[in-house]
Specification:
- By secondary structure, the chain is mainly β.
- It has one domain (2-313): Neuraminidase (6 Propeller), CATH 2.120.10.
- It has one helix spanning 306-313; strands spanning 2-4, 7-9, 36-40, 46-51, 60-61, 66-67, 75-80, 88-94, 104-106, 112-120, 125-133, 141-142, 158-164, 170-175, 180-186, 195-202, 209-212, 218-222, 234-235, 245-246, 251-257, 268-272, 277-286, 289-297, 301-305.
- The strands form 8 sheets. It has a 4-stranded antiparallel beta sheet, with no helix packed on it. It has a 4-stranded antiparallel beta sheet with strand order 9-10-11-12, with no helix packed on it. Strands 13-14-15-16 form a 4-stranded antiparallel beta sheet, with no helix packed on it.
- It starts with a strand and ends in a 13-residue tail after the last helix.
């Protein structure tokens, strides 16, 4: 199942052909990757959370380093109780300007969680948060804001991705300009995020996609800080960010964790392209069968066996979270 500008479509042949669209609402635009997600809840309800791109407008004052008052891209949710025939409870979750996000999940307890990034002023930068629903998207509550500082239209805590751990905690990995993902934990189902710290995962200023698989493992696909065997030049500081950062996007890597993100396997090179690969998406089509896509670059369409990848990757491991990192 997926959504395009015309509506909801389903496929019964592994994506070779698709049904006629069932209209949903305006504003959903798949040309912008990581701008919407579809979730089928355990109850059968369909929930879509999306950026309304029908009237978005990015407006930034370079001299002041602040978003202008007309800067707007709103964050919305809508749901269906009849398989997508009709849609109800359309509601705005966040006004102002919001951007790409990498997570809409349902926990084992039935709570639906979606991540978000939100542009704030004084100083202008991004903060992250989440929304939770305990009634299949009928109503939502926002978490506390996660603020890592920064100043610039691509600085701060951006493009969060999320997974549930085996002990019930939630883990969010956040894109930063600080050479690595920052990790944030919630032990109350996403109501509050209290533990905020740098992770051991080196990363360029690019998002990753974190997924908990049927096997219980975590899988992460992302752009590393540097290319294999080399060093990526850093750009900035400037209006985008207050510190120099790697913007390397020439390749996507993959790593696994089977101990709730305390440690990760050796990153494996998944794919590379001269025009870059970024904004990844991982889909577990069936248990152990992983599909990988890239929103920018490529095109990337890869199907792989989880166990084969894991066995190759676990030959070496990255430092445990909290270990000293260079």
């Amino acid at each position: 199942m997926t959504v395009d500008t015309q509506g909801l479509r389903t496929s019964k042949d592994e994506g070779k052909t698709w049904s006629e669209p069932q209209p949903v609402c305006k504003g959903i635009n798949p040309k912008e990757p990581a701008s919407f997600y579809v979730l089928r809840a355990g109850s059968g309800a369909l929930v879509i959370v999306y950026l309304d791109l029908s009237d978005d407008h990015f407006s930034w004052d370079d001299a002041a380093g602040e978003p202008k008052p007309d800067c707007r891209c709103e964050f919305w949710a809508i749901r269906s109780l009849d398989g997508g025939k009709t849609w109800i409870d359309r509601q705005r979750l966040l006004d102002g300007y919001n951007a790409n996000f990498f997570g809409l999940i349902q926990t084992r307890a039935g709570r639906i969680i979606v991540t978000a990034e939100h542009l704030v002023s004084n100083p202008g930068h991004w903060v992250a948060c989440s929304f939770m629903s305990e009634n299949d998207g009928k109503t939502w509550k926002r978490s506390n804001l996660i603020d890592l500082g920064g100043h610039g239209h691509h600085d701060g805590a951006t493009e969060p991705t999320i997974a549930e751990l085996s002990d019930g905690r939630l883990l969010m990995l956040i894109r930063t300009n600080l050479d690595r993902f920052w990790q944030v934990f919630s032990d109350d189902g996403g109501r509050y995020w209290r533990t905020i710290q740098p992770s051991s995962i080196d990363a360029s200023s690019s998002p990753g996609h974190l997924v908990r698989l049927n096997s219980g493992r975590l899988v992460l696909v992302w752009n590393r800080l540097n290319p294999e065997g080399g060093t990526a030049p850093k750009g900035g500081p400037g209006v985008a960010a207050e510190c120099a950062a790697s913007w390397y996007r020439g390749a996507l890597s993959i790593a696994f964790s089977d101990d709730n993100a305390r440690s990760w396997t050796k990153p494996l090179l998944l794919a590379r392209a001269k025009n870059g690969l970024s904004y990844p998406y991982v889909f577990e089509r069936r248990a152990g069968e992983l599909w990988f896509f890239a929103g920018f670059g490529g095109p990337l369409r890869v199907r792989a066996n989880e166990e084969e990848l894991f066995q190759e990757a676990k030959k070496n491991s990255m430092p445990e979270s909290g270990d000293k990192v260079k």
